[in-house]
Write a structure and sequence with these properties.
It is a multi-pass membrane protein. 58% of the residues lie in helices and 3% in strands. It is mainly α and 330 residues long. About 4% of the residues have low confidence.
């Protein structure tokens, strides 16, 4: 089991270099915030559009199939389960649903209706005559005007204790699509952006906070180290899993109590190894003379907007225009 290949969460894909890699990290951060913020007060069509855009970006960037196949598959399956479960759950209104119009409408007539006349034998040959409703003449004008509208049903499906309403479907679409855009959009950003570029971008955005004596440089350095530390965590977890599988433990003989003790022992070993790795990184920085971020400025990434970046910015402006034009919630 290779976690670094099967579960590339928060890892940077160095090769192949796609068009997503070539975009400026500031532009990609703006697109990421668009995927995270624009679903607020948006309709269902816009939410599905964002999901489709993420899938199109992945396919057109020609990212290797081994990188996103399992991740997108499991995530789509999770979102589908969330969609189905939320749709059949109560919508939170706690109302007794009733039809909009009464089933048995009262009618006041001065004289009884005339007996229906039998249709002539050649009536089936007159296909150009539309069939008429015999009760249409006895209806009120308001009732006749409502015949052209489709019937409205708040409860879409009901079977035993399970009820699907319009509100529950809307809520299910919101939760499932938001979950997909949140997880996969963030992972795609981390997959195509170097950690140094992410830290430098956030440091530029936080530069105005220096006026408040906030340690902006320290925050950027900490973020860079934390992003670089994620592969080390996955590597330690992978090594522990391999060590357990090598010993061929018979879990049935161990029992539940023994399994819990073994899991706690592995967690303790994992935390100990991670602290050891962190201490090694700190020692390496100290040996190299690193004392303070302000005294050892390192140019992590050189920012330069190119034509493809300006084109992406233009598309982002158009996307927000479509959002305010057609993406507002009903």
């Amino acid at each position: 089991m290779d976690l670094l290949r099967s579960l590339p969460l928060g890892l940077y894909l160095e090769a192949p270099v796609t068009w997503l890699h070539q975009l400026d990290s500031r532009v990609k951060l703006a697109w990421l915030m668009t995927f995270l913020v624009s679903p607020i007060w948006a309709n269902s069509l816009w939410r599905f559009l964002l999901v489709g855009l993420l899938i199109v970006f992945t396919l057109t960037a020609l990212i290797p199939l081994r990188v996103w196949r399992q991740q997108m598959g499991w995530l789509l399956a999770l979102c589908l389960v969330v969609l189905l479960v939320t749709a059949v759950m109560p919508d939170g209104y706690n109302l007794q649903y009733a039809p909009r119009l009464p089933q048995d409408e009262l009618r006041f007539q001065d004289h009884p209706p005339a007996a229906p006349q039998p249709e002539p034998w050649y009536q089936f040959l007159r296909f150009w005559d539309a069939p008429q409703d015999p009760d249409r003449a006895n209806r009120s004008p308001d009732r006749v005007s409502l015949d052209k509208f489709q019937p409205y049903h708040y409860v879409l499906w009901n079977w035993g204790p399970f009820t699907v309403t319009r509100k529950s479907v809307q809520l299910a679409v919101r939760i499932s699509t938001w979950l997909f855009t949140l997880i996969y959009g963030t992972n795609l950003f981390l997959l195509t952006t170097p950690p140094e570029a992410i830290a430098a971008t956030l440091q530029i955005l936080l530069n105005p906070l220096r006026q408040l004596n906030l340690p902006v440089v320290e925050v950027g350095l900490t973020l860079t180290l934390s992003l670089r530390f994620i592969p080390l965590v996955l590597e330690e977890v992978q090594n522990l899993i391999r060590s357990v599988r090598t010993r061929a433990i018979r879990w049935r003989k161990v029992g539940v109590k023994g399994t819990i003790q073994l899991v706690l022992l592995l967690i303790d070993r994992l935390v100990e190894n991670l602290f050891l790795r962190a201490e090694q990184i700190a020692s390496a920085m100290t040996v190299r003379g690193f004392t303070h971020p302000n005294q050892h400025q390192v140019l992590w990434h050189a920012f330069q907007l190119r034509r493809v970046d300006w084109f992406a910015i233009g598309l982002l402006v158009v996307l927000w225009g479509v959002r305010f034009w057609q993406g507002q919630a009903d």
